Amino acid sequence: MPNPAAGLCLSEGQKLELETLARNGNTPQKIALRCRLLLLAHAGVANRSIAQQLTLSRPTVLALRSAFAKDGIAAITGIRRRKRRAKVLTPELEQRILEATLKTRPGDGSTHWSVRMLAKHLRISRTIVHRVWQRHDVQPHRVERFKLSNDPRFEEKVRDVVGLYLNPPDRALVLCVDEKSQIQALDRTAPILPLRPGLPERQTHDYKRHGTTTLFAAFNILNGKVIGTCQPRHRSREFVKFLNHLEK
Known about the structure:
By secondary structure, the chain is α+β, with helices and mostly antiparallel strands. It has three domains: 12-77, Arc Repressor Mutant, subunit A, CATH 1.10.10; 91-136; 172-193 and 204-247, no CATH class. It is 44% helix and 14% strand. The protein is built from ten helices and three strands, in the order αααααααααβββα. A three-stranded antiparallel beta sheet has the order 1-2-3, with helices on one face. Strand 2 (207-220) and strand 3 form a beta hairpin. Helix 2 (29-42) runs antiparallel to helix 3 (47-54) and helix 7 crosses helix 8. The chain is elongated, with a radius of gyration of 36 Å.
């Protein structure tokens, strides 16, 4: 029988923490193994017996006991206390984050800042950047488009059109007419396979081109119905033909 080793001295807090880590199913196996090793050492089990029970070598057991005596729980988990103090979100830091986001761009040619890029640039955590962006509803990755009109009567014309939609004349049928040209007429090289239980609709990745088409459409403001036709060409006579279709 091997000689019993001197019991490893553990405080009640250390023993409870090791037992909790060893029983927790989310603890990595190598950390749980180290916890069981130290608990056996605390119970006075010989180093050779610990090595046999845990399928380890005796030098490994000795090395872990020595590391625990020097660093405590950090020797088990590998987690060391930070020597530097984490940055706290102050009004000045929040203003720096906003100014960098709104007034600067990354130097590597990127179109906008990401959380990680800005955090690295300012040498802060990405959590702080994300918190500031959420607080001020800043979303650098999103882009919205707009167009300005040079027509001096633009506002007057908009009021006339919107007013007609909102308050049409009595017994009048209001239709919103528009056109979409240069629509590609594409067709798959094989018939589309229909939807089936457990399978989505399937289509081939390649297609055949059949030129372009022009869509003329009218939206009925009263009932929401859309009337539309496709024409092979985009000329005034095709548009007049569509207007005659609407009149019928």
